[in-house]
Amino acid sequence: MALEIPIPEEDLEEARPRACVVSTEEVVALVRDGVREAGSQAEFARRHRLNEGDLSSTLSGARRPTAPVMAAVGARRAIVIEERACG
Q1: What's the pTM value of the predicted model, to 2 decimals?
Q2: Which end of the chain is more exposed for a tag (fewer CB within 10 A), N or C?
Q3: Nearest CA among 4, 1, 2, 62 for reference residue 28
């Protein structure tokens, strides 16, 4: 039997990862910054094990960032309910 130690709510709040809602454009800007820091698209793709075609299409605006491209800059897709719809 495991010993359960109660954790104060304020400590739980600090342990939860912080997140913010950003636009696709902001994600692409973060990717551009990463590419600039890496020195090239090819190097950024190599470092993050990305498909270079997906990365190029994202940067050119031909397609939305794929999940792996977003993950490279710490982003992910989420469904957000507006406060007014939360009841």
Answers
A1: 0.74
A2: N
A3: 62
- Of residues 71 and 79, which shows the higher confidence score? 71
Cα(20)–Cα(57) distance, rounded to whole angstroms? 25
- Does the pLDDT at position 66 exceed 80? yes
DSSP string, 18-80: P-----HHHHHHHHHHHHHHHSSHHHHHHHHT--HHHHHHHHHTSSPPPHHHHHHTT------
Per-residue pLDDT, averaged over 78-85, amounts to 78
Query: Among 54, 55, 52, which Cα is nearest to 31's?
Result: 55
